[in-house]
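Lecture 7, part B: from sequences to assemblies.

Below are the input chains for today's worked example.
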Amino acid sequence: MSPVFALVDCNNFYASCEKLFRPDLADTPVVVLSNNDGCVVARSKEAKALGIKMGIPIFKIQAQIRQHGIQVFSSNYSLYADISDRVMRTLEDMAPRVEIYSIDEAFLDLTGIQPVVSLHDFGQQVKRTIDRWIGITVCVGIAPSKTLAKLANHAAKKYSATQGVVDLTDRKRQRKLLAITPVEDIWGVGRKLSARLQAMGIHTALDLADTSAKSIRQHFSVVLERTLRELNGESCMELEQIPATKQQIICSRSFGARVTSRVQMRQAVCEHITRAAEKLRQERQQAKLLSVFIRTSPYQNNTPQYSNGLSAELSRPSDDTRDLIQLSMRLLEQLWRDGYDYAKAGVVLSDFYDIGTYQTDLFDKASGHTNSRQLMHVIDRINHSGRGKVFFARQGIKKNWAMKREHLSPAYTTRWNGLVKVN
DNA sequence: TCTGGGGTCCTAGGACCC
DNA sequence: TCTGGGGTCCTAGGACCC
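Predicted structure of the full complex, as structure tokens:
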């Protein structure tokens, strides 16, 4: 049976989440900012209509914000993650196999449902249900490959006549859409590839689909060859229900204010490594390799620049925050140079092992901390309870470098004191 | 003054071995 | 002493995505 995929994608997701609890903002332009209130990462449809571009630094649109009364929000990930969960659970109730692809989109496997219910009707039903139950608007694209489903979803978003659902299982409709799709709008084709393709005279998705797979393979790579095949309706990417275990965990941040002292930098790295260790334990993995990097701002070209990173192995894989802090502090001491305005620091954990599978050598001493597992478990539980935080002294208390979040909305769904009040 | 963060996959090239 | 080629493994860097 030939496969059928649906891509369900939430419209303007972060902006929609912010509006969900603020009915007064229903028709107001809303933008959501990146961490540190740096640039715009989401826009409501009203903000898009005003021409606010994705990724633009906030300071460049101050005039428009004032002029049009645009509402600005710092990103509130716990809110978005919670709304996302509700959407995904609803999808899982409606389709037998679901791949959660990102915080705001999911692929569904619709193979074989056709004789029972029309694909278009099913798409409409999904859209209606998410709208009624959660209050989030989604668009649905349906096609025989993931790449085409993405394209169908784009079309559903772009053309209002589709009412948010496009069934692209028909070959003729596929080619019609491909013909009016610029090559850079294809999933998997970014700026660089697009430029090279244009130079070869490949301007539309249809141009790419009609190029020989062999020549694309030669000039580019298997990745683009796969994209080409998918554009022709040949499914080369399967639905992946079970998320693959991570290969690496990165925690990094730009500072809210420049860091110039070693003590503050230690606190920041400590904080990152602590978060990374939490994520690692959530994955039920232990890491053997740790990297630390620090750098000044590449945008400040009138001040001296420094950027450096170092990696080191632990003697054995660990998920104990104390081991990771210790090693990261050693690396930081080697990296640190006085006299710079540091803008960002981060840590990377990699080389993962399932807990208990690492082969120690015969003469390895018994593991470092006897109470490690229990202690980390207790710390994680307290920190997730919402009732308070336990942290390591090194993380510091007065954090001048902490992330800027001046426009944060309340935690409507995950904190009691963030609950909406009805008067 | 102010420009995000967290990932994946693929390829080329060097090191090393036989 | 000189010369050759094939294979594997690892890493860095590039490109992409949301």
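Note for the exam: The radius of gyration of chain A is 24 Å. Keep this in mind when comparing with the next example.
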